Amino acid sequence: MLVNGKLIASQIVNEIKEIVAKIVGRKPGLTFILVGDDPASESYVRSKDRACAATQIRSSVIRLPNSTSEKDLLAQIDQLNNDKQVDGILVQLPLPSHINESTITQAIDPEKDVDGFHPINLGKLLQGDDSAIIPCTPLGIKVLLEKSQISVSGKHVVIVGRSNIVGKPLAALLMQKKAGCNATVTLCHSQTHHLSDITRSADILIAAIGQPYFIRKEMVKPGAVVVDVGINRVNGKIVGDVDFEEVEKIASHITPVPGGVGPMTIAMLMQNTMTCFLKRTDLV
Ligand code: NDP
Question: Looking at the domain assignment, is residue 6 inside a domain?
């Protein structure tokens, strides 16, 4: 069965739009910083900005040249941290190689960290602290499974990919001792031995690798749920990390690419912006 992330995300976006419409006075505000002219980053920021327009969240995009120094970028972030009109700050990654990403991530006020990449938010997530802002893609996957009536509790969830933005926070999230979580998580990566044996033991298999068609049907247990996080460009087409045509035949549920996890990530960005706004409204 196809898990329609696009539809579920659009329902969430509509719910947020209704909440924003009822806010009297200052509406939530999100500022994007885009450094350089990477076409993929341009397109991600455009999609996120469109979602702001759809929800009536105020948004602005600060475009900086590729030559921007780390010092100047830090000064820009500092200004936004102190701007009472700004509830969320998103610096689109990757950054040019002369800028240290973790220095930038750590400079964002954790209360405005809509991406949830600040070490304080990641630490809170690991500790199960409900005040954590959870990174958008992991949160989107959790919500997508919940809304599709797929419980992760007690299941063996295998995640392939251990990045700081997807694999690691997703593992931390699904293993929480909390309703909607309680998964038994295995996190795999490029050094994992006998990868296929592990993926074949998954009740829920999540691919966040960045390699087109990497997950073949031989790697999937019949009846498993398969979540494809990958976004890869092949001959001008966007494809996932899963060989969809093959795996669809044996999976009980599968997310498509595009139209699966991607729209959920953007919907969760809107949700995180609302969360930051609501925490801050008594301060403004
Ligand atoms: P990274 O490149 O940061 O991480 C990829 C991970 O995959 C690494 O942990 C790497 O292992 C692992 N890996 C690579 N090759 C293999 C292999 N042969 N066997 C097992 N593991 C392997 O990628 P991201 O996490 O940033 O992104 C992953 C994919 O998800 C990309 O396609 C990206 O575009 C997409 N993405 C989609 C989003 C969405 O909203 N749908 C959001 C974010 C990302 P090791 O650590 O050992 O190098």
Answer: no
Cα separation, 100 vs 41, whole angstroms = 17
Same domain, 181 and 252: yes
Beta strands 204-207 and 237-239: pairing type? unpaired
Residue 238 in domain:
yes
Q: Which of 159, 166, 206, 270 to mutate to test the pocket of ligand 1 (most atoms within 8 A of CB)?
A: 166
Residue 22 has pLDDT above 60, yes or no: yes
Q: Whose CA is nearest to atom 3 of ligand 1?
A: 163
| Residues 196 and 252 reside in one and the same domain | yes
Q: What is the CATH number of the domain that holds 29?
A: 3.40.50.10860
Atom of ligand 1 nearest to the CA of 191: 47
Residue 246 lies in a domain: yes
Residues of the domain holding 84: 24-109
* pLDDT of 280: 85
DSSP helix/strand/coil, 61? strand
* CB within 8 Å of 104: residues ≥ 6 apart: 70, 73, 74, 77, 91, 95
Ligand 1 centroid vs 210 CA: distance in angstroms?
Answer: 4
Convert the pLDDT of each residue in 198-216 to its tens digit: 999 999 999 999 999 999 9
Q: Confidence band (pLDDT; 50, 70, 90) for 282?
A: low
How does pLDDT run across 99-114, given as a tens digit for each residue? 999 999 999 999 999 9
Q: Quickly state the pLDDT bin for 281 (edges 50, 70, 90).
A: confident
Q: Whose CA is nearest to atom 19 of ligand 1?
A: 190
What angle do helix axes 261-280 and 136-147 make, rounded to 10 degrees? 110
